[in-house]
Amino acid sequence: MPALRIENLKKSYGTVPVLKGINLAVENGDVVAVIGRSGSGKSTMLRCINGLEPFQEGTIEVVGHKVDQSRANLRELRKEVGMVFQSYNLFPHLSVAENITLAPRVVKGLPLEEGSALVREVLTRVGLAEKAHAYPDELSGGQQQRVAIARSLAMKPKVMLFDEVTSALDPELTGEVLKTIAQLAEAGMTMVLVTHEMGFARRVATRTVFMHQGTVWEEGKSEEIFTNPKTPELKNFIAPDLK
Amino acid sequence: MIQSFGWQSVQFLFHGLVWTVGLSLCTFVGGGIFGLVFAVSRALGPKWLRTLVAAYIQLVQATPLLIVVFLAYYGLSFLGFYFPPLAAAAISLTIYATAFLADIWRGCIEAIPRTQWEAADALALGRVQRLRYVILPQAFQIALGPTVGFMVQIVKNTSVTALIGFVELTRAGQLLNNMTFQPFHVFLTVAAMYFVVCYPLSWWSEKLKERKHAGTAH
In terms of CB atoms within 10 Å, which end of chain B has fewer, N or C? Predict the structure, then answer.
């Protein structure tokens, strides 16, 4: 059973179609990079996967949960599917440790005394073990994004979704975040990343999906996609990186 | 019986002030409880409930408080529900405060960025958990300043209950004036007493708003 299967996914905003029949399967352990121009529907597709965006047609199945609009169902799914956002979306009124333990505590009933061990574990994985008691506004953008990754990890997700997680960062801060994600990839986490970092997609993703005009235009092994693009649209899109 | 303005008069007014403060507190507690329920309903309820609460807010905000007070005191007694002035005053002020606090707090709830709701959703928090742990604590921080500011309005507006014979500070001033015929002494003292209660609240409200601006960006 694939970790994620999308079949004929269609979505429109009013009369404007955004996704025109997406098909995609992600196996356990896959790291899939989704690339494409702004407006090609890649973030929308990603947000459909954990039910943040409703869609009109098609089916999505993630780690055995079907995505529909029943809230109870979505909650079960979201316990196993983590998401990291472009703008981090940490809870500004909570410390780093509280950000991390909130969902495990109230959703999964994590006992209070196991909280600090969990905080230590996930912060160590993102290299921020000493920041447990800081507040989000005391951290740099890169650190905040790593905390957001740690917060997501604390739920022990089976699949993680990354929505342009370096786009809001200053260039010198993207490295630390990408390194963290690459380590997760090495550890075997199943991930789907919407990204503009072509070099990173090529190096870290096992597969790359190129989206264009609301469809999966081209997909394949990352190396293949970047060295040997078949469609002129993809060639055009990645050309600057090949120079 | 004509008496002249003196220490006794101040004591008499102070007694009225105690009732003003007491009525203000009742109003704030009552309006606070209903206001919170209404604010959440207005921001998050099903459509019919939102419309209903919005209509209530519009209706009350468009009605002079004095008319609400008269309705509660004269109107309801006409229908057979007689409330003594204190109860009628508390009920009508609560109706009024509920509408304004619900509106202020709804604004604060809606001011929390969409992304915070999504982050809570993505972490599998339920609706109530999302509200309880993520949205309301942040909305509360924004709401403090305007809420304390509105308390000043409540304190001043308790004065309209003088017209149904509830002896709070303003009514006490009227009575005293009838006994002393020294309106400047009487009403300047009344004004000073309102000031002593309201100014610290205004000052505190401004402080809270400043803190918000200097505080966390998201």
Answer: N
ipTM of the complex: 0.90
A85 and B129: CB-CB below 8 Å?
no
Min Cα–Cα distance to chain A from B138, Å:
7
SS3 A31: strand
CB atoms within 10 A of CB A12: 14
pLDDT tens track for A77-116: 999 999 999 999 999 999 999 999 999 999 999 998 899 9
Q: Is A79 on the interface with B (CB under 8 A)?
A: yes
pTM, two decimal places: 0.85
- What is residue B207's three-state secondary structure? helix
Closest Cα partner for B11 from B152, B148, B172?
B172
**Gap between the Cα atoms of B205 and B207, Å rounded:** 5
A-chain CB neighbours of B133 within 8 Å are 102, 106
**DSSP SS3 for A52:** coil
DSSP secondary structure letters along A131-188? GTT--GGGS-HHHHHHHHHHHHHTT--SEEEEESTTTTS-HHHHHHHHHHHHHHHHTT
CB contact under 8 A, A89 and B115: yes
CB of A42 within 8 A of CB of A20? Answer: no
